[in-house]
């Protein structure tokens, strides 16, 4: 095109030439306005929970832009996008020194989607979304080392049974560890959903969105989950001695309750963070901190700042991982924990090939003992 005269160019080529000389006709838009517009545009296709996640995650990007005094999205360029990625990976999270490739990939895909929308409404330079660095994943990426090993779980449950027996915190830990279910499932349980006085005790999960207790996968998340007689006894003692006599706004009796009504997800999170700190169960501090001056040790509200504390998801993760190590089939774990087999393979299964081989051997040996010969 450089050697051609204006008369030799067709309409599209003239337009491209003018755009390259004059630049795009961008409209002023603040980062906050850009995010609000994006969320409104995605609202018809995303659940409210996913929208909240997008708002929270992209809200971090807004914090960075405010820090950099960017109040007009037209000022975004490739260098700033690279700075955002670097900041997000290494500086934005207090709990870890560096975000994993899996987390960064999710974050950058989310950022790219937002920038693509901003291009459509002429708020940023065309093609800016292409400059977002999305990391490649290797075979081991995407599986998180949650590192709440079975021994730590055993010590925590033993401590709670001795010193906090049948309290709300104790029952939250028992159900979180032994069911493999999400926090939302535990919150949704009513007293009548706990079938405890039977030879085969179980919990009954229901999706009740019209009454404020929806399950993540709707009716697919509903069903029965067996628990041991020992765990059923703990829950029974909690109901009879500790649980406050309260109902929720729909006149239901929540199983997990405070004096204000149904327990919240945030309360469950606080209990898991609180009791996953090694120092509070007499296991010392693996980080050589002085408990008297450590804010994470001194305050339940700061428990999540302890490097060894874990969120409720760690219990679900540990349940599935330990189940795989012991040879529990994928379909069994999938149905019990309400997680697809593919998701378990990608994000939960931390077993090594040697562990999987040993698990298969145990299953085959057991079948061979029962069959008495033949192929197996």
TrEMBL record:
Specify where the region named Disordered lies, as residue ranges. 290-314
All copies of the Core-binding (CB) domain together span 29-119
Q: Say which species the protein is native to.
A: Halorubrum vacuolatum (Natronobacterium vacuolatum)
| A GO molecular function held by the record | DNA binding
Stored InterPro entries: CB, DNA_brk_join_enz, Integrase-like_cat_sf, Integrase_recombinase_N
Which lineage do the record's taxonomy fields give for this organism? Archaea, Methanobacteriati, Methanobacteriota, Stenosarchaea group, Halobacteria
What name appears for this protein in its UniProt entry? Site-specific recombinase XerD
Q: Identify the keywords attached in UniProt to this record, alphabetized.
A: DNA recombination, DNA-binding
Q: Which GO terms describe its biological process?
A: DNA integration; DNA recombination
